[in-house]
Amino acid sequence: MTRDMETDPFNISMRKFLKQVGVTSQQAIEKAVEQKGLKGKGRLKVKAVITSEAAGLQHVVEGEIDLG
């Protein structure tokens, strides 16, 4: 019997973690941009790193955010 992805504990837990990463990261970036007065000043280079020693994981995502 296979589990539906929507009810699989691994997928549920991973989605919860990724939602937390997304929400808290957005808040941190918004706060930093506001504190430095960067809104409307070009682009902001960003890098996100997710690591797990147990899984031997180091995942890096780099990009730019348009500051308007």
Would you give an account of this structure?
The chain is α+β, with helices and mostly antiparallel strands and 68 residues long. It has one domain. The chain has one helix and two strands; from the N terminus they run αββ. The protein has one helix at 9-36, and strands spanning 43-52, 57-66. It has a two-stranded antiparallel ribbon with strand order 1-2.
Give, in spatial order, the strands making up the sheet with the most strands: 1-2
> What's the overall geometry?
elongated
Number of helices: 1
Helix content: 40-55%
Radius of gyration over C-alpha positions, nearest whole angstrom: 16 Å
**From the helix content, strand content and strand pairing, which structural class follows?**
alpha+beta
| Sheet having the most strands | 2 strands, antiparallel
Mean pLDDT: 94
The helix/strand series, from N terminus to C terminus, equals HEE
Percent of residues in beta strands: 25-35%
- What is the count of β-strands? 2
Give unreliable regions as ranges: none
Overall tally of structural domains: 1
How far apart lie the N and C ends?
50 Å
